[in-house]
Amino acid sequence: MKVIASSLRKGNVVEMDGKLYAVLKAENFHPGKGTPTTSVDMRRISDGVKVAERWRTTEMVEKATVDEREYDYLYTDSEGFHFMEPNTYEQISVHPDVVGDDAVFLTEGIKVYLRTYEGAAIALELPQRVTVEITETEPVVKGQTASSSYKPAICSNGVRVMVPPHIGVGTRIVINTEDLSYQERARD
Q1: Closest CA to 123 of 40, 36, 14
Q2: All domains of the chain, ordered by start, with CATH?
Q3: Of 16, 29, 44, nearest to 122 (Cα)?
Q4: Per-residue pLDDT for the chain (188 aa), expressed as one digit of tens each?
């Protein structure tokens, strides 16, 4: 089905020249003068080659019809990452190239959306927010809580994130998986 280029998002699958591409990043540019454009970084599904493409935001692009379902993450082994469809208990193995940098967020039982095309996994979408624990950060300094400065911290999964000064080691926080930004203190 055809869609306008500006509606493409990470995880979408585009068909060009008879080949399928998974969108890794899509940005819209609106210059003061000239035509607005959409810049898209994609990975060719057949061989994993990365491609950058630029379209006018109003251009029509062929979006491939793929199966998108929620899966539970089970475990990782030498074959790849294993997921299970909760309704049918059907398991699927996903190649590490498809998961990419998102592997750090995969914890047992996390629910993700997997896009499959003809039975093969081609794209993975994480939940927008995940809860992690802070394992390393600078100590809390009294009187610094009112300022809007942030300090670096390392989470239990190894991700670096900037947190408010009042967050200490052992605190559970919620972070955005798209831009790795601090959202709030976990409520659990």
Answers
A1: 14
A2: 2-62 (2.30.30.30), 67-125 (2.40.50.140), 129-185 (2.40.50.140)
A3: 44
A4: 888 988 888 778 888 888 888 888 889 999 888 889 999 998 888 777 889 999 998 899 988 878 888 999 999 988 889 999 999 988 888 888 788 888 888 888 889 988 887 777 877 888 888 889 999 988 766 665 555 688 899 998 888 999 988 888 899 999 988 888 889 988 87
For residues 163 and 156, what is the distance between their CA atoms, to the nearest angstrom? 14
Q: Is 143 helix (H, G, I), strand (E, B) or coil?
A: coil
| Beta strands, E only, the chain | 2-4, 13-16, 19-29, 37-44, 50-56, 60-62, 67-77, 80-84, 91-94, 111-117, 120-125, 129-137, 151-155, 160-163, 172-176, 182-185
* Residue 178 identity (one-letter amino acid): E
